[in-house]
Amino acid sequence: MSADPFHLGWFYSKGFGPKAWKHPWAGSDVDRFTKPDVPVELARAMERSGFDYLMIEDSSNVPYTYQGSHDAYLKHSVDTPKLDPSILAPFLTAATKHLGIVVTCSTTEYHPFMLARMMNALDHVSDGRIGWNVVTGSNDGGAQNYGRDKQFPHDQRYDMADEFIDVANKLWKSWDEDALVLDLEEGVFADGSKVRPINHEGDFFRSRGPLSAPRSPQGSPVICQAGGSPRGRKWASEHAETIIASASSPQKMKEYRDDVRARAAAAGRDPDSIKMLFLVSPVVDEDRETAVMRAKRQGAEMSANADFQLAALSRSSGIDFSKFDMDEVLGELVSNGHQSSVAGYTGKTVRQLVESNPLTGDGDLFVGTADDVAGAMDETMQEVGGDGFLIVNSYFPRRYVTEICDGLVPELQKRGLTRKKYEFDTFRENLMAY
Ligand SMILES: Cc1cc2nc3c(=O)[nH]c(=O)nc-3n(C[C@H](O)[C@H](O)[C@H](O)COP(=O)(O)O)c2cc1C
């Protein structure tokens, strides 16, 4: 017996920014990271292998949490620099026909009208293939770029995101599907009775509406969410259509998924209308020994560059990790940033955190030949129950794209685990097809 067919996505981490700039196989054009070249090639490879979506991560500041300075962030290119992902998205949709493109935008950095308008435009020009990764911000440096001293308190950010999406949804519905008439005989472009102001006056936002453009092919972008704290899970269970989830073992994946599905059912939603994709960083090679050796080398590189890891942990948590001793066992940490990630640090030494992959922590579960890894994914999905995986590898060169899209995925397809062809035109239809 094998798992039911599942979905595949790619977490394009480090946003629209540099990837494998100092690693072997990085290529000779690493200075072109400000151009869409590499992500366009990635999107094409993903589409030929039937992926659901490419998610462009983002944050909009040069961090300075670690050692109170931006030096380590700039020296190692940790979470910076990043260009605006909404500018990259149309290049990716223009280069593909079926792949979904998910853009990260923070509800504390946009006004709902501006966000709703941008997503509407992206959905139009992509013929219905846009998603929005709804984040709420985590680092005070980000808030300071937008005129505040610090981030709003963690749970309040989700309250604000509740209202934000309510306003955005109203705007996306402010033009009826048939409002655009284009009646040449009567000389009517659009029917005013089918376009309505929303007159929203809430706790955090005001907007009159209607949106300044007709309804888009999907009506609204596919809603994606990432935060795994209890408040984050509540938000996701009420609004998300796909969740990008970080969990370090099949058992933890299952617990996370079961919890969100139960919350969704309690909120009156069909749990199957939420596709939870788990972050994994497979290492695939022609034989198992080589793959294991490469995975070990990657781990050694991570521990040799502790500054890089510590700077990243500091940014996402808002806690300066330079103040801890490497062998200090961490107690409970208080964070106004990524609380779900920080909760997992308790009881570990800083060294252990540095040596593990901070996003997946999946050890060597997905290391081996394409056949090995496809088998491990199959078994994991059988244990978890669904809905798929999201590839993440911050420093991938083009070679990694080929290893996944032309090496691993054909093995998954052979086993009937992932799609060979797209059935529908829009992102949401393909995502919800199974
Ligand atoms: C896997 C993953 C990816 C995330 N990607 C982003 C991102 O691209 N940009 C961002 O601002 N926040 C990102 N976040 C942060 C979350 O969206 C959320 O705001 C944060 O984790 C706090 O939520 P939590 O405390 O509920 O985990 C990510 C979180 C996780 C776990």
Automatic annotation (TrEMBL):
GO terms for molecular function: monooxygenase activity. Transmembrane segments: none annotated. Keywords: Flavoprotein, FMN, Monooxygenase, Oxidoreductase. Residues 40-387 form the Luciferase-like domain. Pfam families: Bac_luciferase. Belongs to the NtaA/SnaA/DszA monooxygenase family. This is NtaA/DmoA family FMN-dependent monooxygenase. It comes from Frondihabitans cladoniiphilus.
